[in-house]
Design brief:
single chain; alpha/beta; five-stranded mixed barrel; 24% strand
Length: 270
């Protein structure tokens, strides 16, 4: 794994000549932040040796290198999901490559279902914790000591300083945000009513199919993380309706300008 990470990072560094300090992962229907980047290099995943290729609608599948808020950034327009059949090593490979490129922080977005009865479709939620309900963990197997310790501490998976700053930015711009715990499941099925109830009972506020593996891998390498969700459907008894991927995309796209503003100003404030 380590030679693969190094090989990809060397290829990207030689192609772009850049050393990004900020990594960004853009979730379903949330690739618009890429339009705010002064892009110098656009690299489709298919053109990167040994790199996976995103297969999900709403995930363009390319890396953007450029400038945003006074920082050099690398942004994933489209991520890799465990349910696509990728191994956990593949799912978190881009985060590890970003570390080797030089990132000092990681910002992540996703679309997910809300299980807090107070939530509404279109709400924004800043993650301050998560629950790993995937059937495995990206750190299972021999530890790669060059990346991080065998037993990484997860007492602060999401950076409290970035959370506080994001909340301040939201308040200054009249944007309502929630803060809560995200539960990560494998998918690709959306949850049953009983599964939604279970997630709520164990302390989750929202549930989705990404983010958790990427943040675990980032924290293993000592990278501070910030993540924000768009609540695209509600998993609360009496409010559950049949949901399609197209509906999720549409809600995410409508919420995107608010999320983009917070992310952009947060990066500029670092």
């Amino acid at each position: 794994m380590l030679p693969r990470i190094q090989r990809i990072a060397d290829h990207l560094r030689n192609t772009t000549g850049l050393t990004p300090d900020t990594g960004i992962i853009l979730g379903t229907g949330l690739s618009g932040l890429g339009r705010e980047i002064a892009v110098s290099h656009t690299i489709p995943y298919a053109e990167i040796p040994d790199f996976p290729v995103s297969t999900v609608q709403g995930h363009p599948g390319r890396l953007l290198f450029g400038e945003l808020g006074g920082h050099t950034v690398v942004a994933m327009q489209g991520r890799f999901h465990y349910y696509e059949g990728w191994s956990m090593d593949d799912v978190v490979l881009p985060v590890r490559v970003m570390k080797f490129l030089g990132i000092q922080r990681l910002l992540v977005s996703n679309a997910c279902g809300g299980v807090d009865p107070q939530m509404e479709i279109g709400d924004l939620m800043i993650l301050d914790d998560h629950i790993n309900l995937f059937p495995t963990n990206p750190l299972v197997g021999p530890n790669i000591d060059e990346l991080g310790p065998r037993f990484p501490d997860m007492s602060e998976p999401y950076d409290q300083k970035m959370i506080a700053k994001a909340r301040s930015i939201a308040e200054s711009n009249g944007i309502a945000v929630r803060t809560g715990t995200y539960a990560g499941l494998s998918g690709p099925t959306l949850e049953t009513p009983a599964e939604y109830h279970y997630v709520r009972a164990i302390g989750g506020d929202a549930v989705g199919m990404s983010t958790v593996p990427e943040v675990i891998a980032a924290r293993h390498m000592g990278i501070p993380c910030f993540a924000m969700s768009v609540i695209t459907d509600i998993g609360v008894k009496g409010r559950i309706v049949k949901t399609t991927h197209e509906m999720v995309q549409r809600v995410a796209e409508e919420a995107e300008p608010r999320l983009t503003l917070i992310m952009k100003e947060l990066i500029a404030a670092q």
